[in-house]
């Protein structure tokens, strides 16, 4: 099996679907000859031609609107928003339009669009590049929001997202792009959207995370093991819709939960997860569900990132509280 | 038709074929339409004027919902649409229900759109989407539809409509610019009816015309007398020819006027318009001038017009009856329309609402 970085797995997924379905189109700012600012589309224009993989004018709303129009003509667009902090420019096309087309048209039209975009902190970007805005997307009915944490998941989830007949926001954490390699089959495979994955089995406490925080949770779990606490780590993989079943099954076993996100605390994905847990399994809980999240400020300038981003020590602190409640 | 940027405003003279008295002032530009076509254009305009009057009355009786009056804009709406083929794709704004109807949407569905029932938006075989509510959102989508047609090798165009206010949106420029950059077969029609709800067009932009905004996108632009159905038809037909010949998109500005309020939801034009202005525009009425033109050719008569009016009234009555017969929408309908397959949260909510609705 090949060893790939996450960015290689993402390119591989797009290459697979460009081959499988002639309706798949990949476009965005710099995705053509340049292969994208992170090289996610490296070599794709050369292999599939400018008709299938192409640069657009620099305008995110135009990119989103064009994706909708192409979908109305039966294409399967995979537009890239160069950094997810630019999503505010294309919010109407995403939330006001593509998320609603199936409903609005009473099933006359659907939007098989996968909006790919890099996000996430810790790589010293300028302002409005690193923000975790998945909560904003998850608030919009009609969208699925997918965030992989490993190269293997990235390939299977992206292929499945492109094949999905409804719009998917596919968010790629920049810190994970090249930080490690993992085993990725060269053949095609898919991972069902809306299904969480148990990344580490344990019996004493459940850590629910997604994206880069999965790795912080795994690091915390290693430390906890030394202290005699056996932590289970659940990777949501799809943050909308959330897979409650996998979470509840785990909570019924461990009776203690810490939910973790890189995004600001207020109105976040894990606030929703915590709420579902107490609605569905309160009698199984030995302690309140605690959250690890960033403070409710705007995303900081890069020299303050390291003190602002949640890390494995924050997770250990909350686990300590729920274990000793 | 592509303009230079020197003295740009002087290059956008208003294109006209029929003057206010129904006289041909530009014989060279006269479109090649048969007598039957000319009569059909008049029939559609008369029908749509009646539909507008009836829709306003039905709205006041509480029998229709959201409605944006169309009287005054018939030439802009129907002259341009008359240049479209059935396989061309229509992306209307919210006032552009008449074009949808003539593109094939059954009248009772247009009424259901007004009532806020999703069946009104189910296009079936009609190459169109339902009227866009967000001003300008349809314009970038039009660039995409047009690019898709080009990729498919179709000899068709995507046509969209907005108003003078819509020309201020970022999406207006982005849509034109994308279509221009990709050489996509799109036609962008701005019905400049002088008011975006209450704000006059003079406050929208320092540009003297909306048509000249085409210059910045590097596409063709034309300003046309929007009360002259033949001029609007001809300008759109020419734009369509260029588009399917691979010569790219066109922006068409039609100078028109809405006689009524912005919508029936409480807008009062006396707060922002004066009666003198309204009277001036009514003298330019598209039906009056085209009627004179047709009568002079012996192609129209009072009897013929009355026949169209009676027919329209009957069809409207039947369509309202059919709209009344549609099943009421349920929450479970809405849940089932969100995704192809229901995710966990909506599966749970589906069960919850099935239970509630069974009581």
SSE arrangement of chain A, N to C = EHEHEHEHHEHEHEEEEHEEHEHEHH
Which structural category fits the helices and strands of chain B? alpha/beta
| Most extensive interface | A-B, 44 and 41 residues
Mean of residue pLDDT values of chain A: 97
Q: Kindly report the name of the CATH homologous superfamily of the largest domain in chain A.
A: Thiamin diphosphate (ThDP)-binding fold, Pyr/PP domains
**What's the story with the biggest beta sheet of chain A?**
5 strands, mixed
Name the beta content range of chain A. Answer: 15-25%
Distance between the termini of chain B: 65 Å
The number of helical segments of chain B is 13
Q: Into which percent range does the helicity of residues of chain B fall?
A: 40-55%
Please mark out the parts of chain B with pLDDT under 50 across 5 or more consecutive residues, or reply none: none
Counting structural domains of chain B, the number is 2
Oligomeric state of this protein: heterodimer
CATH topology assignment of the largest domain in chain A: Rossmann fold
Compute the separation of the termini of chain A in Å. 45 Å
Please compute the radius of gyration of chain A using only Cα atoms: 19 Å
- CATH C-level category of the largest domain in chain B: Alpha Beta
The appropriate CATH architecture of the largest domain in chain A is 3-Layer(aba) Sandwich
């Amino acid at each position: 099996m090949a060893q790939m970085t996450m960015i290689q797995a993402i390119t591989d997924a797009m290459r697979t679907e460009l081959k499988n379905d002639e309706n798949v189109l990949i476009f965005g700012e710099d995705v053509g000859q340049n292969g994208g600012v992170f090289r996610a589309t490296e070599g794709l224009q050369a292999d599939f031609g400018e008709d299938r993989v192409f640069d657009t004018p620099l305008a995110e709303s135009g990119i989103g609107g064009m994706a909708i129009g192409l979908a109305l003509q039966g294409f399967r667009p995979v537009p890239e928003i160069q950094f997810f902090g630019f999503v505010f420019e294309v919010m109407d096309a995403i939330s006001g339009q593509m998320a609603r087309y199936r409903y609005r048209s009473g099933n006359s039209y659907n939007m098989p669009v996968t909006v790919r975009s890099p996000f996430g902190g810790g790589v010293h970007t300028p302002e409005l590049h690193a923000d975790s805005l998945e909560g904003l997307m998850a608030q919009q009915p009609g969208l699925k929001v997918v965030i992989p944490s490993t190269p293997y998941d990235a390939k299977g989830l992206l292929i499945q997202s492109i094949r999905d007949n409804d719009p998917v926001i596919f968010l790629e954490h920049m810190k994970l792009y090249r930080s490690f390699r993992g085993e990725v089959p060269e053949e095609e495979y898919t991972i069902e959207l809306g299904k969480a994955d148990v990344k580490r089995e344990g019996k004493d406490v459940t850590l629910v995370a997604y994206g880069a925080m999965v790795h912080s949770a795994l690091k915390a779990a290693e430390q906890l093991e030394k202290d005699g606490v056996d932590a289970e780590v659940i990777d949501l993989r799809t943050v909308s819709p959330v897979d409650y079943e996998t979470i509840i099954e785990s909570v019924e076993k461990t009776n203690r939960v810490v939910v973790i996100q890189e995004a600001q605390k207020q109105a976040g994905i894990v606030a929703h997860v915590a709420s579902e847990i107490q609605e569905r399994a309160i009698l199984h809980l030995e302690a309140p569900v605690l959250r690890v999240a960033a403070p409710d400020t705007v995303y900081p300038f890069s020299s303050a990132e390291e003190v602002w981003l949640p890390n494995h020590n924050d997770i250990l602190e909350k686990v300590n509280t729920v274990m000793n409640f | 038709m592509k303009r230079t940027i020197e003295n740009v405003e002087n290059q956008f003279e208003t294109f006209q074929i029929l003057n206010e008295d129904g006289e041909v002032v530009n014989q060279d530009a006269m479109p090649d339409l048969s007598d039957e076509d000319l009569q059909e254009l008049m029939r559609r305009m008369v029908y749509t004027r009646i539909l507008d009057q009836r829709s306003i009355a039905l709205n006041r009786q509480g029998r229709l919902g959201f409605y944006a009056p169309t009287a005054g804009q018939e030439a802009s709406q129907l002259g341009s649409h008359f240049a479209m083929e059935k396989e061309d794709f229509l992306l209307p704004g919210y006032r552009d229900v008449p074009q949808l109807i003539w593109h094939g949407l059954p009248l009772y569905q247009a009424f259901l759109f007004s009532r806020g029932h999703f069946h009104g938006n189910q296009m079936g075989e009609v190459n169109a989407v339902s009227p866009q509510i967000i001003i300008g959102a349809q314009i970038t989508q039009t660039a995409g539809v047009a690019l898709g047609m080009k990729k498919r090798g179709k000899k068709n165009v995507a046509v969209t409509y907005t108003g003078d206010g819509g020309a201020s949106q970022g999406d207006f420029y982005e849509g034109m610019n994308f279509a221009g950059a990709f050489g996509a077969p799109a036609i962008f029609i701005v019905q400049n009816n002088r008011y975006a709800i209450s704000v006059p067009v003079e406050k929208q932009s320092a540009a003297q015309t909306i048509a000249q905004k085409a210059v910045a996108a590097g596409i063709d632009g034309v300003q046309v007398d929007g009360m002259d159905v033949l001029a609007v038809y001809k300008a759109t037909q020419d734009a369509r020819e260029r588009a399917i010949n691979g010569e790219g998109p066109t922006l068409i500005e039609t100078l028109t006027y809405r006689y009524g309020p912005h919508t029936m939801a409480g807008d009062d034009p006396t707060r922002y318009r004066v009666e003198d202005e309204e009277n001036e525009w009514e003298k330019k009425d598209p039906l009056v001038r085209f009627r004179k033109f047709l009568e002079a050719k012996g192609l129209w008569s009072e009897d013929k017009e009355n026949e169209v009016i009676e027919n329209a009234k009957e069809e409207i009555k039947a369509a309202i009856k059919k709209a009344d017969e549609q099943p009421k929408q349920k929450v479970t309908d809405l849940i089932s329309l969100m995704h192809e397959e229901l995710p966990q949260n909506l599966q749970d909510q589906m069960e919850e609402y099935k239970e509630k609705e069974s009581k």
